[in-house]
Design goal:
Two copies of one chain form a homodimer. Chain A is α+β, with helices and mostly antiparallel strands and 300 residues long. Chain A folds into two domains: 4-178, Formiminotransferase-cyclodeaminase, Chain B, domain 1 (2-Layer Sandwich), CATH 3.30.990; 183-293, Alpha-Beta Plaits (2-Layer Sandwich), CATH 3.30.70.670. Helix content of chain A is 36%, strand content 24%. In chain A, strand 3 and strand 4 form a beta hairpin. The radius of gyration of chain A is 21 Å and the shape is globular.
Chain lengths: 300, 300
């Protein structure tokens, strides 16, 4: 079966549409790659590309993206609200189907090494690909940003995993790694009381004693006048959607409030939804190969 | 987006493994086709192939299957428990993704015409492709079987839709059509009382006033000593899995019985499970394009 890996490179350009379009074209011209989505944020001055393919295809696509971005983006004149280290700022690899996290870690190392060699850009490995615990967290790696790189790279704690120990003059440095799929999942409550949403968020999130792979906050949807628990699911294979949903429902009931709906923002792996169906229907020993579209890929 | 259509041809050979293997090979050699499954039943003396692809690919694959089957299978010496009319007995086309029922009806007509012309086999169109209401039902078309064909074909009510009005001497006739995906879905009860399963089956099935696209019966799983409602879902897009599950749960509760599990037998379109997740999670305006694997196919 051909494996499916997703990559979500973030580039430091969200204003000049022609540069973003050329970056997308650089990815798309690699045979076999699927460019699933491109989103630009002018305030952040940053664009997020979503692509999928097998390991070899993604390596080509990321190198092709670098070729364009290193030429077209100059961090010395880049301004935006979002912290960034480089022209291609961060490149995560995400196992979707027929690929393990270890496959993605290996791919991150391979791509990181190739990028450093070909473009003289220092590369940090992060998350599951990190080479030390203090280098796991993206925010920690990015602290100090592009402007702080010359200093940071001198610190032995922050020596790059690949490439030179000084930043690329215009393209800075890049963070490459492997992580589980992120799912943006919001649950809407039948109340305008944002305090209830905040209390529920606190109950379910990891940082306050909740589920390990949940980040959450409570907010008010101004237009609908509806309180929302806004959730980032950082590993649905270990903390599944349906469990979080049921917990939010139970916590809301404790305040006499109903769950009126939920939403998935952006892309979601089929398996996350199939797991929820499996739970609802109490399926006994259901095998992913029974899903017709998946079987199709398996017999390819 | 490349469309996905499924076809589940049934051939009248379930004992001679070499004939079945050659039939599978005849299908598999068509570029682009995916042979998902082959199941042979020696008592029925019949095999069921599951294949998927786009319309053009499936047409090629079915013609290739006929080429082999018409040569290798002789109905004059065929015996088995399952009723049958021909060497290739029935060929349904099933819309899975990016294809409508109308596309499958058009494909059934096209394949039926080509089969009749190339192999001199009379073809009946059935289900959604039927040309008259009394010709919709497969059982009605097949009544009288291979042995009754010469007589049946003389009846103006049963003139074939394509091909000669006498059967092919050895390959008989074939039924080609279009239908919704079938899902075999069984729900297990926390009781040994098969009467409860039978009463629930009666409550949910179409023939007794239940859901339009549900066939069901109650039975006892001897090995587990568990009563089961065994269900055929004939159109999950109109009668969804989760609605039937919830009804069975409610009916069982009326007897003080719990649902202890369920099982999907064989293949199931991803959408049937995603619909169940959508129901559980109360998703608001979820779009199938948000499923990563599906988006991948869309950008192909």
């Amino acid at each position: 079966m051909p494996s499916i890996i997703e990559s979500v490179p973030n580039i430091s350009e969200g204003r000049r549409a022609e540069i973003v379009a050329a970056a997308a074209a650089a990815v798309r011209r690699v045979p076999g790659v699927r460019l699933l989505d491109v989103q630009s944020d002018p305030d952040h001055n940053r664009s997020v590309l979503s692509l999928a393919g097998d390991a070899g295809t993604l390596k080509q696509a990321i190198l092709s993206l670098f070729e364009h971005a290193v030429q077209a983006i100059d961090l010395r004149s880049h301004q935006g609200e979002h912290p960034r280290l480089g022209a291609v700022d961060v490149v995560p690899f995400i196992p979707i189907e027929g690929a393990t996290m270890q496959d993605c870690v290996a791919l991150a190392r391979e791509v990181g090494e190739a990028v450093a060699e070909r473009f003289a850009v220092p590369v940090f490995l992060y998350e599951e690909a990190a080479t030390a615990p203090h280098r796991r967290n993206l925010e920690d790696i990015r602290r100090g940003q592009f402007e702080g790189l010359p200093e940071k790279l001198k610190d032995p704690q922050w020596a790059p995993d690949f490439g030179p120990s000084q930043p690329h003059p215009s393209a800075g440095a890049t963070v490459v790694g492997a992580r589980a799929p992120l799912i943006a999942f919001n649950i809407n409550l039948g109340t305008q009381d944002v305090e209830i949403a905040k209390r529920i968020a606190k109950a379910i999130r990891h940082s306050n004693g909740g589920y390990r792979y949940v980040k959450a906050m409570g907010l008010l949807l101004q237009q609908r006048n509806v309180a929302q628990v806004s959730i980032n699911m950082t590993d649905f294979t270990k903390t599944p959607l349906h469990r979080v949903f049921e917990s939010v429902r139970a916590e809301a009931a404790r305040y006499g409030v109903n769950v009126i709906g939920s939403e998935v923002v952006g892309l979601v792996p089929a398996q996350a939804l199939i797991d929820a169906a499996d739970y609802l229907l109490r399926l006994e020993s259901f095998n992913p190969s029974q899903v017709l579209e998946r079987r199709m890929r398996e017999v390819e």
